[in-house]
Amino acid sequence: MNTTPRRIFLAVTGLTPQVVTETLYALACRAESPWIPDEIHLITTATGAENARLNLLLPDGWFHRLCADYRLPAIAFPVANIHILHDANGTPLDDIRTPEQNTLAADFITETLRRLTESPETELHVSIAGGRKTMGYYLGYALSLYGRPQDRLSHVLVSDPFETNRAFYYPTPYDHPIHSKRGDKEITVDARHAQVELADIPFVRLREGLPKELLKGDARFSQAVAAAQCVGRKLELVIDVAARSVTASGEPVKLTPQNFTLLLWLARRRLAGQEAIHCSVYDSDSAAAQEYLAVCREVLGEHSFETERLEAALKQGMDSTWFSPAKTRLHKALIRALGENGAVPYLIRQVGARKAARFELGLGAEYIRMEGCA
Fold first, then answer.
1. Domain end: 193, 227, 261, which one?
2. How many domains does the chain have?
3. What CATH number should be reported for the domain holding residue 40?
């Protein structure tokens, strides 16, 4: 069984597709431990896409020359892997100039990176050397939001006078003269002697703190940033009984009727200073069951389908066979809304172990506020 992750090289480019071959050379041909991608992806404008296609991907393009010169294994880099920024109507963008275009570019870059990091069986190397500065910023920030331990970020460094020379694509293993400027004079330099290095860029990984829905669905840059900022916000659980709504750290939390009544019940116990409840596999707690069902009748209605269903489930009292799955469902809802890290203070905690195990809302009473109560 092959356990090697699929390696993906991702870059933003503008009018200088050389960034692709320069970085690929540094990764695959220059490094002491070569990192050869299985596939290459670019994010660029409509003009940048055509530049990349004509200069890199034609049969005699510089990408194919590099692979042949250094006998690299097959690397998937079809035209379909050039992802073109587009406007709200799906029209490809030629440039990024307006605030609206910047927002669209940020969302497009973020969603592209989210998709490429979706599978745990991939490993990304991301370059921010090309494209407009805003594109590099968005790509680096998106990697901070969605990057995993195996992913890397870099910027390629090219020696003078090759860095700004549009005829230079990588150091060739043979003499390759190209024309360059030195002051007001034109000189000829040999691409063979160019120095190309990678500068690794450390970045903070925030992925584990993001809500699950942002890891699975379309990711907007502003939404992902806002979610990341929620981690570390002041603790506050607000339960509006009349509206049957909950916010935690300022974020709305979508809850089923059972999840809502369970959280409300435990929050009220916390506010009243009551002891943790005893719900073990060894015996059931009739008092806890009746207390919880009273909350269900109050909030959901005495003859509602949900209340009657819960009354049937808790007829013999509350034990771990009912409480453990209910707790898990509530936890999943909180994590979806707040992320792994953001949800931690709001989860149900266990006090003691095995037969002595008791459960309570982990959040302190001073952080809980009730609204919409009679």
1. 227
2. 2
3. 3.40.50.10770
CA distances from 285 to 261, 279, 289 (A): 18, 6, 6
Between the alpha carbon of residue 188 and those of residues 69, 116, 132, 185, the distances in Å are: 22, 41, 29, 10
pTM of the model: 0.65
**Are 157 and 241 part of one and the same domain?**
no
Task: Give the residue from 258, 242, 263 showing the smallest Cα distance to 304.
Answer: 258
The enclosing domain of 239 has a CATH number of: 1.10.10.10
Contact yes or no for 22/156 (Cβ under 8 A): yes
- Report residue 122: phi and psi, to 5°: -120, 160
Is residue 247 located within the same domain as residue 219?
Answer: no
CA 133 – CA 12 distance, rounded (Å): 10
Range of the domain at 150: 6-227
The per-residue pLDDT for range 269-297, each reduced to its tens digit, is 999 999 988 876 555 678 889 999 999 99
- In angstroms, rounded to a whole number, what is the distance separating the alpha carbons of residues 345 and 367? 10
How far apart are alpha carbons 137 and 125 in whole angstroms? 15
